[in-house]
Amino acid sequence: MPMRFLATILLCLLVAPAGGAPVATASAEPLIFLYNDHLKEPYIFVEQGQVVSGIHWDLAQYLGQKLGRPVIMREAPRKRVEQYLLEGKAHVLLLTNPAWLPRSDLLHWTIRVYTEHDQIIQRQGRTFNVESLEDLSGKRLGTIQGYIYEGISDAPYRDSIIRDDAVSFRSNFLRLKRGRLDAIIVPQAQSDHLFRTEFHRAMFHVVTTWSIPHELFSAVSPHSPVSAEQLSAAYRDMHRDQYFERILARYR
Predict the structure, then answer these.
(1) For this UniProt entry, which residues form the secretion signal (predicted)?
(2) Proportion of the chain above pLDDT 70, given as a percent
(3) Going by CATH, does the domain composed of 117-213 fall within 3.40.190.10?
């Protein structure tokens, strides 16, 4: 049996709604889920210009099943994500935070989807103790261009921590491996994926004594055919049934 066909069957089992839940029909208005053009694996996997899997794709399929809506995935430039939502060019931005969007008050928001942890990762042989932001003072920290990091982006640490931006987490892993950085900061889902697919975990040290947690929600367009409360109800079911943990497990 082809692996992609098998993966499709497994995904259908993963996101199949509970008894009595709506089933998507062609006549229902599609839900358009937005992702920015910087989003990479494991959040979005693209083949021949089409999203085929990933954490965001799996979550969108689950919500489409629960709400009886066909699903469309739409890419947007990162700086225009908010504009797409406000103009109704897309309906839902899945995993985000109001603090990251300048006009978040004009959007509708769901309950918390989950809490992600940004981990500090060092190179083996060049480790140092980290129990607070203070321990990163004077260190060159690999970060992602345009990202807002709680605490690190604020005074006094924005001056004492040497932020060294790159365009991707993979680039930061490579720079850390080559000794050009003291540490990098990476979401756990991203580091799990890169350790599984490319980098040898034994070459790196993941700090377990401290991390930066941030809560993730979904931003909903005022023009969405489903409300933030409807999406929140689906998320409550998801939390109860631990579906999101199963989605994350596919990419670890």
Answers:
(1) 1-20
(2) 90
(3) yes
Domain chopping of the chain, boundaries: 3-14+26-114+214-249, 117-213
Instruction: Look at the block and give the residue holding tokens 């083949």.
Output: 47
Q: What is the pLDDT of residues 135-185, one digit of tens each?
A: 999 999 999 998 989 899 888 999 999 999 999 999 999 999 999 999 999
Q: Is 204 exposed, middle or buried (0-12, 13-18, 19+ CB in 10 A)?
A: buried
Q: Can you tell me the distance from the alpha carbon of 209 to that of 17, in angstroms, rounded to the nearest whole number? A: 38
DSSP code per residue over 182-238: SEEEEEHHHHHHHHHHTS-GGGEEEEEEEEEEEEEEEEE-TT-SS-HHHHHHHHHHH
**What pLDDT, on a 0 to 100 scale, did the predictor assign at position 13?**
44
Distance of alpha carbon 206 from the chain centroid: 19
**CATH number listed for the domain at residues 3-14+26-114+214-249:** 3.40.190.10
- Residues 83, 79: Cα–Cα separation, whole Å: 8
